[in-house]
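Q: Can someone sanity-check these two? First one:
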Amino acid sequence: MAAELQMKLEEKQAKCYEIKKAFMDLKREVCKKAAYSRTDKPIPERKIDEWEERENIKSKELQSLRLENLRLRNQLAKNQKILKKKEELAEGLHLIDFEQLKIENQTLNEKIEERNEDLHKLKKKNTNTVQILTHYKEKLTFVIDENETLVQKGKILDEELEKERRALGDEKEKKKQLQDDIQQLKQATGIINSDSLRLDYDRLIKENKNDEKMVTYLTEKIQHMEKCIKEFNKKLAQSKIGGYSGKNTYFGGSMNGSHASINQ
């Protein structure tokens, strides 16, 4: 009889293991075909293994708690039978012994309820952990994409700043050349009342003023772009720490203003 029961138990355990393995394989296939909702990227194999390992740990804890629950239930049933027998044969027992058994029975019932609550809390905690992990992974992917976008925009700003600096240098050279030409004209002739010299001198003065305005404009533009780059570097440093929420406002406001100035 015992050998037959042992054989049936082994068959049930083998079947249970096959069903569990098939279910785990099904979940793994579903995870491989799944993807993140925002990035549409597949879930890495390493993360699937990590989730399976956590699930195995929780399953072992759950199995242990179930066994403990069964043991306590069996102990409760046994105590209830003993109590029932003692109640049947309790003609000679004192009232205080009967009350003590009832107290012990109540204590065991409370322990069972506590175990059931702990089991429910573990299930809820496991679900919350999976949800939090998924949220943080999506958040990390979003922050990485935002960081790459910021780096590209920073490179574009650096290139535009370098162009403006070269243009400013060219304008300064033109201004210096005009000043040298004016000085040479003043030294070469002492004729002040000549109409052609006066007209040429007025033209050079006008060009000089225009060049000074251009130099002033380019200087202000470079200062504005340097300010934008400093703000960009500050925002980039903050994004590495995890504060990515302010990036969209920065590039939607300050950077758009700098591009508008450049287009002018």
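And here is the second, same format, sequence then tokens:
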Amino acid sequence: YASLVRVCQKAGRWEHAWQLLEQMIGEALVPDVVAFGAAIGACKASATQERPLRGPCLRTRSPSRLRSEPRSRHHWVQAQWSSALALLACGFAWRIKPNVVVFNVSIGCCGEAGQWRQALALFKTMHGEHGLTPSPSTVVAVMSACAAGQQWARALSINRAFSGASGGSPQPLAVHTAAISACEKGQQWTQALHLLEALSASGACPDIVTYNAVISACGSSQHWER
């Protein structure tokens, strides 16, 4: 079942992924972390679909349906993150140990819905309660969530903590770009320039996305000449 759920997710068959997960529950089977991760991934992807999110409500082991009829893009995304967290909570209740990928997708769901507090709480739970080491993708997801909530200072704090935990190893460009994007959204052009200078000094090569974020930060703060 878990492999089938994952195949459906990768193939873009989100509703089939949900149906398979519900079928497992109906047969009194406890989904493993792979099945839960794929189902949460289906939650994330469902926000881009032009149809209602329909998935299993997993408070008990008996199958039931959670049906929502979002009326706008905002409602679509809100349904997405709340369903993802419901699945994650159910996994905790069944003592399924989530992995880094599951947390990454869940944090991404919260970030896209503007739920930066939830994203930050998941980030802390992942590291503190489950002892999982955040990956670069985790850091990008939680910084992006903070940036969407105008929490640029929190995003930079996470970036510094991740940099310190890496023992001085070079960070992926995506992490640097996410930090600069957080400054852009917070109109912190001096911080964005400082991060760009630090990135260049490390020997890394910024790409067009990184430069666009810096330019946008300067432009939004009326410092276009920079």
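A (reply): Looked at the second one. The two ends are 55 Å apart (CA to CA). The first strand starts at residue 54 and ends at 56.
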